[in-house]
């Protein structure tokens, strides 16, 4: 899964890929084999877009735009969407693809990439299972709280108040940053983040995993 997540984080929060596969893939309407195939297909189809991503860095992340650009849509038995988030200077920083499923427990499968990290989301009626790389990090529920996979205890949360300009993000009860409220954004191309603390690798991985959900929410997840 790359160097972005330190061993301490793996030991304290994440669980192994075997648990990830058993938790993340079974009990779908589509079936685990079908979902694996769909995920592999997403990754293959996105190789050109991924190669074009600007390297993720401290300088670039503060320039990330809230503007979601949908780059493709296909319909059939299932619907597939693709898009990207760029910097305010129109440099691609995050690409994503989403597949919708008709009926059953699984509603959507989403795969997103920065230049150095990947995020996979399994959307069901119970919440959104989130994986960073090959590791299942928890369930992001409708109360905007990420629950850790071991003890089912709150680990991170977004204080989402639609009357505010920004949504504070807390990890381990510490505010680490905030997200622009898309309903209150006044600029044509607003920045996604209003505040970012000096995060370590594990904190940034969780922060970004949640941020991507919230950035997609208005168009695809509400």
The end-to-end distance, rounded to whole angstroms, is 29 Å
Helix content, binned percent: 25-40%
Low-confidence stretches: 1-29
- Rg from alpha-carbon coordinates: 16 Å
The count of β-strands is 12
User: How much of the polypeptide forms β-strand, as a percent range?
Assistant: 35-45%
Number of H/I helices: 6
Biggest sheet strand line-up: 1-2-3-4-5-6-7-8-9-10-11-12
What does this structure look like?
The chain is an alpha+beta fold and 222 residues long. 26% of the residues lie in helices and 36% in strands. It has helices at residues 7-12, 17-24, 32-45, 47-51, 58-61, 201-221; strands at 64-74, 80-87, 92-100, 106-113, 118-124, 127-132, 135-140, 145-147, 154-158, 166-171, 174-180, 193-196. Strands 1-2-3-4-5-6-7-8-9-10-11-12 form a 12-stranded antiparallel beta sheet, sandwiched between helices. Strand 6 (127-132) and strand 7 form a beta hairpin.
Give a quick precis of the structure:
With 222 residues, the protein is an alpha+beta fold.
Describe the protein's topology.
Elements (H helix, E strand, L loop, with lengths): L6 H6 L4 H8 L7 H14 L1 H5 L6 H4 L2 E11 L5 E8 L4 E9 L5 E8 L4 E7 L2 E6 L2 E6 L4 E3 L6 E5 L7 E6 L2 E7 L12 E4 L4 H21 L1
Antiparallel strand pairs: 1-2, 2-3, 3-4, 4-5, 5-6, 6-7, 7-8, 8-9, 9-10, 10-11, 11-12
